[in-house]
Hints:
Elements: H1 3-23, H2 28-37, H3 44-60, H4 68-78, H5 80-83, E1 131-135, H6 142-148, E2 153-155, E3 158-164, H7 174-177, E4 181-183, H8 186-195, E5 202-205, H9 212-220, E6 226-231, H10 234-238, H11 240-247, E7 252-256, H12 262-266, E8 273-279, H13 300-317, E9 321-331, H14 340-349, E10 353-355, E11 364-366, E12 369-372, H15 374-377, E13 382-389
Parallel strand pairs: 5-6, 5-8, 6-7, 8-9
Antiparallel strand pairs: 1-3, 1-4, 2-3, 9-13, 10-13, 11-12, 12-13
The structure holds S-adenosylmethionine.
S-adenosylmethionine (SAM) binds near residues 206 and 257.
Amino acid sequence: xxxxxxxxxxxxxxxxxxxxxxxxxxxxxxxxxxxxxxxxxxxxxxxxxxxxxxxxxxxxxxxxxxxxxxxxxxxxxxxxxxxxxxxxxxxxxxxxxxxxxxxxxxxxxxxxxxxxxxxxxxxxxxxxxxxxxxxxxxxxxxxxxxxxxxxxxxxxxxxxxxxxxxxxxxxxxxxxxxxxxxxxxxxxxxxxxxxxxxxxxxxxxxxxxxxxxxxxxxxxxxxxxxxxxxxxxxxxxxxxxxxxxxxxxxxxxxxxxxxxxxxxxxxxxxxxxxxxxxxxxxxxxxxxxxxxxxxxxxxxxxxxxxxxxxxxxxxxxxxxxxxxxxxxxxxxxxxxxxxxxxxxxxxxxxxxxxxxxxxxxxxxxxxxxxxxxxxxxxxxxxxxxxxxxxx
Length: 391
Ligand SMILES: C[S@@+](CC[C@H](N)C(=O)[O-])C[C@H]1O[C@@H](n2cnc3c(N)ncnc32)[C@H](O)[C@@H]1O
């Protein structure tokens, strides 16, 4: 493909990504993979160049543009090398008309910016994310893994964390194949640390998804005790089993609960748990480094629904705790409504709970919880809090 044809391909892909973000369709990565499956003539260098154009244009535009051309013209305003490719030749984009405007530059949609926690460094939300690993203590130590992965660097403050450069193909590396490491952002590792799970405890990971944090809890428990991974989506929980097997964490039990009737599946756990992790569904504002078009999907109405659902989940999680137990509330969101205010609301609604002061090696205190941000900590963005049920 010529450089101009690559640019035109990026514009077509952006059209599809914009429509998908508007209509709740597939993620950008899925659309890009589909696009190239149908265009076998594109070589690996073509695919890389088109993908880079697409993501550069997405990262640059805080508001969802109307068209791919508008997104790309916005980028071309800052990149004369790209502007020169709008020449109308075969497979190239048509010349930019006088007065034709590009998407404006920005990190965060205007409606959302005032809702972000004040300390958040907004531009850093769109940076490039490294590949973070958690060494699986059920099978290995950081020292043994570091010898096998010489490119990996320790992550300050995370005893089991190792960091590889962006794009490192870790799934082809032996330590990953043998289950000695899991790919897990440093912020997620910090949340597992905040749970302070220990051998012999009863721990419930209530929004377990495919079990990223469940596996970290399993390692902290050294494979001893009761660890339940619950979720409302069967397909997500199903992805945990092969991961648990690879990690040697076969003591994990999975529990499929019924959306809207969660209490039914959780009755037998009432008053039994030492730790309940609520890693709640959220706006994902902290993970834009990995899927920057997510900010084109979020709407005020969706945020309102998420906030209501987070409060509801915390409320049905609370009775699961034994006296003296800890409910750890976490989101990969950086809006105060999903974090600090959510904890304030819980403490106002529920008697007999206190927020524990946290002192973690990365991040900073925020309200009654803790904030991690890409700009301050080099991790994805998270808010979490540890809420203790009185003994
Ligand atoms: C942020 S994701 C969890 C990510 C996961 N903990 C990890 O570390 O990979 C939130 C999860 O909450 C689940 N969820 C949504 N509503 C729920 C509910 N009412 N009860 C339990 N889980 C729910 C979603 O299916 C999703 O898997």
